[in-house]
Design brief:
The chain is an alpha/beta fold. It contains 14 helices and five strands. A five-stranded parallel sheet has the order 2-3-1-4-5, with helices on both faces.
């Protein structure tokens, strides 16, 4: 992958290498990072597409991770008889490796978001009517503190993007190196318009954001004002996500103005 060239500001090399193939764009969707909106923008321009999802029906009683693994294998099998240009899902690092191994010309991409904002947004979403099980969820977690106590909600971005050995080691530098070596594009939700424009320019159809899906709106249960102690707790519980986000976001921010100017020249948007 050539992501390091992008963050070094070598846009010509980055675009030249990224455009050598017509890849399968594999979007690793971390919850509450504007991924649903990004999907809405990309599906119309990258067809045919495929959504990896888990069957929640009562007919399949296997553990969630087994069902997700099977869903990934079904996609790989489907790819043997049909060429897809876009695939997305709440998949994990080992799924990315499996798809890269089993499907030709894969371009993994993802979006990161400030981890504190992402945690709050995730809680608010699950409390809202947009989430099918919101009433049951709120009964279990009437406060964000009870949600933060729930096992498995820490370092969610790392869980999706990194091998378990790197997560367990807990050192940010090797984690960032893995992301730079694995992903073709890592966008930043706080730079969403530019992230979308970069991805869609590479895909041959530059766009500004027009689709906004699953955006939280205040409800009786979902309005939250974090206390200083709650924010510290989220930051402490998600220390690896924080370190990775700050590293990648700083790199993206440092090139944002020059990248915008480069995109204006390479493939300007229609007025």
């Amino acid at each position: 992958m050539t992501l390091a060239a992008l963050f070094d500001g070598d846009f010509q090399h980055f675009f030249a290498e990224s455009l050598k193939h017509n890849p399968l764009w594999l979007f690793v969707h971390i919850p509450k990072t504007a991924g649903s909106s990004l999907n809405g923008e990309l599906v119309p321009i990258l067809s045919p597409s495929y959504h990896i999802f888990v069957d929640y029906s009562e007919a399949d009683q296997r553990p969630f991770n087994e069902k997700l693994d099977s869903s990934v294998e079904r996609f790989i099998e489907a790819s043997r008889s049909k060429r897809y240009f876009y695939c997305t899902g709440h998949i994990l690092s080992h799924h990315v490796a499996r798809i890269v191994e089993g499907v030709r010309d894969v371009m993994p991409i993802t979006l990161l978001r400030d981890p504190v904002a992402r945690v709050v947004s995730d809680y608010r979403y699950q409390c809202s009517p947009m989430h099918p099980g919101h009433e049951q969820f709120f009964a279990r977690h009437p406060t964000i503190d009870s949600y933060l106590d729930q096992p498995g909600e820490q370092n969610k971005a790392s869980v999706h993007l990194l091998p378990r050995a790197l997560i367990d080691a807990g050192s940010p530098a090797p984690c960032v190196e893995h992301l730079l070596a694995t992903y073709g594009v890592i966008g930043i939700q706080e730079f969403y318009a530019l992230s979308l424009r970069l991805i869609t320019t590479l895909a041959g159809s530059p766009k500004q954001p027009k689709i906004f899906k699953r955006v939280n709106t205040p409800t009786e249960n979902s309005g939250i004002q974090l206390t200083a102690a709650q924010e510290r707790r989220i930051r402490d519980d998600n220390a690896l996500d924080i370190a990775i986000y700050e590293n990648i976001a700083a790199r993206f921010g440092a090139i944002s103005e020059k990248l915008e100017a480069y995109l204006d020249v390479v493939d300007p948007l229609s007025p």
